Structures are given as C-alpha cells and as structure tokens.
C-alpha cells in the first residue's frame, strides 16, 4: 500500500514507517553496552523481565544484563542477542548478589538455578520448573521438563 492509502484508511496522517525486525536473527557488538537495536529486539522477543515468575513488562527501564559475564579481555562479540537478559533493577541485583546463575539457552530462553540447585526455565510463554541433569563432575548437561505438554521450541510466537 502507498503511504497515502494507509493514511486514508486510518483517517489520520500520523504514521510512522519502521523497518521489519527479524526476531530470529541475532546481532553482536564488541563493547560492554547493549546497543539500542539489540535492546529493542530482546524486548520484543521476551515481552517481560526474564526473572522466574516475573510479571514486570519489558520497558525501557529494564537493565540489560549479560547472562554470561562480560570479560573486557575476552573475545569480540560478547554483547548481543545471544547474551542479553532484560531484568528490573531489583531482579538484576538479586541475580548478582544472591548468586543465581543464569544461562541463555537460546533467543528468549533462560535457565535460572539457585545456589540450592532449584531450576526454572523462562521463555516468553512463562516459567517452568525443571529438574537438572548433571554430569559426574556436577556440570549441568540438560534439564527434564516435568510437564509433558511443555513447548520447548524457543522461537517467538508470530
């Protein structure tokens, strides 16, 4: 449609044309700060703060945390969609100081583990309790979903 046709259809002329954002692709940068484009895609993909059971809407007031801590001497491309967890300031502090560990399993999917070994997986569809699968050395190798109806396809809904 032409812009004039859209304006006529909507009965006003205050129209903003924006590019289509592909939420299935990722973007990374070589700095600590998450760029605006990454923040926008993460916010559109996650909708809410990604702390387990949170109902705080994803807004511009959320901190964008690195689930895998940023290393200034580490490899390039550490900051991006693959390493971005929007959290309220309270949840960000809880993660940092209460010793939660969080792994970003995919775009919009996060596994949280407490220091006591309780685990939750957070996706745009909500929070699910999971049982961890550990190797003999204690490293996490996966999780068991108790609810057989869980959809583990972490792609965002259309």
Explain this structure to me?
β8 and β9 form a beta hairpin. The protein has one domain. The mean pLDDT is 85. It has 158 residues and is α+β, with helices and mostly antiparallel strands. Helix content is 18%, strand content 26%. The protein is built from three helices and nine strands; from the N terminus they run αβαβββαβββββ. The protein starts with a helix and ends in a 13-residue tail after the last strand.
> Would you tell me the overall average pLDDT?
85
Tally of DSSP helical segments: 3
Taken together, the total number of domains comes to 1
Topology pattern, helix = H, strand = E: HEHEEEHEEEEE
Report the sheet-strand fraction: 25-35%
The level of helicity is 10-25%
- The spatial strand order of the largest sheet comes to 5-6-7-8-9
The beta-strand count equals: 9
What is the 3D shape?
elongated
Structural class comes to: alpha+beta
Q: Roughly how many Å is the radius of gyration?
A: 18 Å
């Amino acid at each position: 449609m032409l812009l004039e046709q859209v304006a006529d259809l909507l009965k006003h002329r205050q129209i903003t044309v924006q590019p289509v954002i592909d939420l299935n692709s990722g973007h990374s940068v070589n700095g600590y700060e998450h760029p605006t484009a990454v923040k926008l895609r993460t916010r559109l993909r996650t909708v809410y703060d990604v702390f387990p059971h949170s109902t705080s809407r994803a807004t511009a007031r959320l901190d964008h945390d690195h689930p895998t801590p940023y290393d200034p001497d580490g490899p390039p491309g550490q900051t991006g969609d693959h390493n971005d967890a929007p959290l309220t300031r309270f949840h960000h502090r809880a993660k940092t100081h209460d010793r939660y560990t969080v792994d970003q399993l995919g775009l919009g999917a996060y596994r949280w583990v407490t220091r006591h070994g309780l685990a939750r997986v957070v996706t745009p569809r909500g929070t699910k309790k999971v049982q961890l699968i550990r190797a003999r050395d204690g490293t996490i190798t996966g999780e068991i979903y108790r609810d057989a109806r869980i959809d583990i396809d972490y792609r965002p809904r259309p």
